[in-house]
Amino acid sequence: MIAPETRQSSPTSDPQHVVVVGGGLAGLSSACVLAARGHRVTLCDKNDWLGGKAAVHHTDGYRFDMGPTILTLPSVLRRVFAEANRNMDDYLEIVPLDPQWRCFFEGSPQAGTSENTVLDLVANVDVMKRHLRDFTGGDSAGNGYEKFLQVSEQLHGVSDRFFFWRSIGGLADTMEVGGAFSAAVLKDVLSLRMGRSVASVVRSHVPEHRVSQMMDHFTQYVGSSPYASPAVLCGIAHMQTEEGIWYPIGGTRAVPEALIKLGTELGVDFRTGTDILKIETSPSGVTGVTTASGESIPCDAVVSNCDAVRTYRELLQGTEESKSFEKKNRHEAACSGVVLYLGLNRRYEQLLHHNFIFSKDPEAEFDSIYNRGEPAPDPTAYVCAPTISEPGVAPEGGEALYILVHTPYLRPQHDWKAMLPAYRDVILDKLERTAGMDGLRDAIVTEDSLTPEGIHNRYRVLNGAIYGLASHGKFTGAFKPGNRRRDIRGLYLAGGAAHPGPGMPMVLMSGWIAADSLDEDARAGKLATAAGSRA
After folding, report:
1. What's the CATH class of domain 17-53+71-93+250-330+477-524?
2. I need a surface site. Which of 61, 192, 209, 286 has the fewest CB within 10 A?
């Protein structure tokens, strides 16, 4: 991951008052970067906590991360701290995890075996090739995996040059970044394999059913079907293997807590329990925000960490820009999910920190979720068992099990209060059957859950989508709404439903891009008209 050259945090000659709407990871990232560059920042969040989905749940001596649990690309987070000339290590302790995942496969005709099998994903390519030789009985899968990672590295490089660390809203923006048309630019564009899906690229290198299914799941960080997502997202595999997977001591919740500490030191005004209902605008641009209590907060610019579609649909309701956005809106919500938080009185020694318990038929699974809009009868389950890295998350001998199964985003016919009990049984049966977690139900001491309805209401995302907007479309599916809005002066977007998309490092980068774009505009005097109109 290539970060931009560090800008020394000299205060801007034209400091702005910026309101950040939403205190998720992207909002916190934006607030810290803006404050480090000399702007006055007020961050408002409707909830009584900051961090958005990176919340924490305590019950009966168990501690659960409620949202994201996998930290990749720590260089992005380090970049945010570097803005203030701070060392991230002084605020946060992270430890590497290798193996990165453990994969459980159920015996099936597709797998070519009636026995359940287990495969560990490790960062070192040579070691992984040996694992794959032992797993498949030959060298084909390992050689194909190595070639796939070479393609992934190339796509990662293209993303670094044209896609990351700048506001991009479409293919034309990448051409502007690339500058004059050249053979080098053409080579990069052709290397994107436009028109091909993640799944097709994966299987062209590794057709073996189980291994390709594992490789598909690099793209599950963006909550989209590998059969419909553009091939450029294969670059995620190299990003992960290059920088690794890390666990923050204290859980993922430690990440927003570190950013809150940094923001407090930099003078950010954090306001929890403050729901923003409207972004106020004039013909010259953003003029302020209005809270649910009727308070008006004048400002020069707004960074919205609210879902991009809901920002225009709700916070800008009634404006011409909202109507225009809706007319052009072809964005589809990404998938949602059911999360089970199970406090167990025992541990399952076969589990690593991160585990995937795979479906038998990924095509049928993704078709159910993304095409038919119904929960998959045989789902893939992600299971986080963190006591292996931090025993204190559960009472001695116990486990704080986090289980996530992707589901469709909310449809009108979905009533998860009625659907959850039966689907809970589907999930627990899957874990017992495929991962050998016998007696799971009897081991449960405490249990809580989060459904698409809860996600929709709790985090103000579009239709309960965990990952913002889907990355579907083999040509332009990787593009999200740009961070710097061209229709409203002084409005910037950050979060999983804005460029560059979902996943912890991407939303942190999104916040940095929004802040950098705003700061760049302020230094160039491009916000002066909007600010001056209220003088």
Report:
1. alpha beta
2. 61
CA-CA distance, 262 to 258, in Å (whole number)? Answer: 6
Residues 78, 80, 86, 90: is their CA dihedral positive or negative?
Answer: negative
The amino acid at 359: S
Q: Domain locations in the chain? A: 17-53+71-93+250-330+477-524, 124-243, 333-464
Q: Which of 22, 143, 36, 50 is nearest to 518 (CA)?
A: 36
Helices and strands in the chain, H and E counts? 18, 20
Report pLDDT digits (tens) over 281-317.
999 999 999 999 999 999 999 999 999 999 999 999 9
Strand partners, 278: 290
Smallest CA-to-CA distance from 407 within 431, 381, 376 is with: 376
Classified as helix, coil or strand, 215 is helix
Neighbours of 61 (CB within 10 A): 15
* Strands 301-304 and 491-493, sheet pairing: parallel
pTM above 0.85, yes or no: yes
The string of pLDDT tens digits covering residues 150-178 is 999 988 887 777 778 788 765 555 555 44
What are the angstrom distances between the C-alpha of 74 and each of 1, 152, 239, 480?
Answer: 9, 19, 11, 22
Instruction: Report the distance separating Cα 503 and Cα 313, nearest Å.
Output: 23
Alpha carbon distance 317, 128 (integer Å):
52
Count of positions (residues) in the chain: 535
Torsion of the alpha carbons at 417, 421, 427 and 432, rounded to the nearest 10: 160
